[in-house]
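Exercise 7. Given the encoded structure of a 433-residue chain, write a plausible sequence.
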């Protein structure tokens, strides 16, 4: 008789089992309010799994300057044990988030809040416990920051809807995360959670404030972008939009939402205009505002729109001669990836070896190609292959002091030797000698 080794139960197994139970209970009774949640947050298996998630995601230190590496050096068990003790005793208090800014494609800067590593672990533990409860209610049209859902799925649904849809409401919520009404968010949380300690914890995160240039600022509205739990809170808040639409306005068009980005695919101009007015009314209820210049109604017979990094446009099919939806990388996405390639191949990085440069390029190429390969992106991939070739040629010349025109075969051999990947789906660089 063959004896099979029994795999030991891991913290991940235990935490998933808890999540599965909570999800099924919430699905069974959609109006049930859960009360015994706080104690589950500081279970050793939950805290251990929360730490693993935070460590895997990486990120900078918060306002206390404690990094993930610092925690590992001092001892993870001791770190998690202190969190467990503080949560049990009710003495845990979140620190203000560190405000930093990241550049946007239009030249502006987007504020980002970085919680401390300790706060990120507690937020992750809370998220693991309460997310299954709200997942049981979330609608299928929502794709952002949800388990087993992705931006690619949302893009595919939009493209399919555009086969019969000719008018699109391309919506943009102005300063969404900065304008979430905290009182309304808390009331939405109370519809499913009655555990006062969990609600108090979330309120503390919302009101923790931000530290910018050493100056503390209170946060009376909004939810800081960058917090582990912020995407879930954002989905809970905009679930109101999903529900209103599904129950009363779905006849106007198909709503597809990814976090705070959403489009509505309509058949007629009248439907699209009515859909836009309806969304404005729902935004008023949520105390939010649509961006006056970025929100528009798009005639797909004349123009296209950008969504989740793709540009959507209708073109004549070569086979049927009918106008069908096509998607490719948007100008903003192209600008972003070119910027990354340019950064990796700057002359100031001549101290790196060619293998190191190609390693970093491959990471960009692989991620970008895997995301955009669902679109009609062959031409865009070929353009980027040429750009990589040009940038690498300039870098190698500066590194090796080469002069003159590169021999195509020699260059290809050099790139193959160091394992350069390509954007083009066939894996062949489109560059000609």
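Solution.
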């Amino acid at each position: 008789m063959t004896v099979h080794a029994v795999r030991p139960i891991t913290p991940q197994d235990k935490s998933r089992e808890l999540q599965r139970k909570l999800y099924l209970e919430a699905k069974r009774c959609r109006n049930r309010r859960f009360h015994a949640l706080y104690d589950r947050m500081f279970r050793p298996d939950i805290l251990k799994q929360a730490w693993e998630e935070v460590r895997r995601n990486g990120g900078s230190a918060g306002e206390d300057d404690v990094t993930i590496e610092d925690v590992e050096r001092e001892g993870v068990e001791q770190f998690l044990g202190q969190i467990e003790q503080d949560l049990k005793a009710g003495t845990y208090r979140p620190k203000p988030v560190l405000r930093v800014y990241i550049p946007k494609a239009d030249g502006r800067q987007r504020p980002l809040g970085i919680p401390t590593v300790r706060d990120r672990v507690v937020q992750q533990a809370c998220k693991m416990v309460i997310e299954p409860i709200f997942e049981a209610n979330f609608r299928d049209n929502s794709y952002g920051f949800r388990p087993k859902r992705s931006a690619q799925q949302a893009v595919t649904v939009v493209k399919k809807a555009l086969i019969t849809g000719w008018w699109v409401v391309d919506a943009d919520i102005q300063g969404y995360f900065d304008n979430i009404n905290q009182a309304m968010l808390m009331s939405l949380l109370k519809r499913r959670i009655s555990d006062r300690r969990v609600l108090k914890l979330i309120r503390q995160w919302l009101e923790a404030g931000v530290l910018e240039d050493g100056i503390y600022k209170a946060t009376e509205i909004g939810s800081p972008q960058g917090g582990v739990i912020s995407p879930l809170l954002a989905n809970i808040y905009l679930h109101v939009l999903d529900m209103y639409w599904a129950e009363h306005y779905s006849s106007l068009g198909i709503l597809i939402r990814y976090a705070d980005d959403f489009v509505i695919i309509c058949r007629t101009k009248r439907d699209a205009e009515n859909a836009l007015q309806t969304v404005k009314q729902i935004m008023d209820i949520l105390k939010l505002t649509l961006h006056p210049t970025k929100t528009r109604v798009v005639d797909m017979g004349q123009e296209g729109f950008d969504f989740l990094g793709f540009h959507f446009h209708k073109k004549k099919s070569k086979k049927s001669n009918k106008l069908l939806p096509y998607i490719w990388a948007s100008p903003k996405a192209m600008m972003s990836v070119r910027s990354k390639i340019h950064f990796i191949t700057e002359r100031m990085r001549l101290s790196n070896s060619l293998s190191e440069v190609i390693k970093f390029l491959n990471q960009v190429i692989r991620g970008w190609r895997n995301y955009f390969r669902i679109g009609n992106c062959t031409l865009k991939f070929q353009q980027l292959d040429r750009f990589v070739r040009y940038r690498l040629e300039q870098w190698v010349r500066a590194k090796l002091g080469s002069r003159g025109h590169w021999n195509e075969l020699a260059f290809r051999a050099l790139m193959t030797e160091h394992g350069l990947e390509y954007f083009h789906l066939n894996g062949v660089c489109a560059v000609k000698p």
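Remark. DSSP finds 16 helices and eleven strands in the chain. Students should compare their own answers with the one above.
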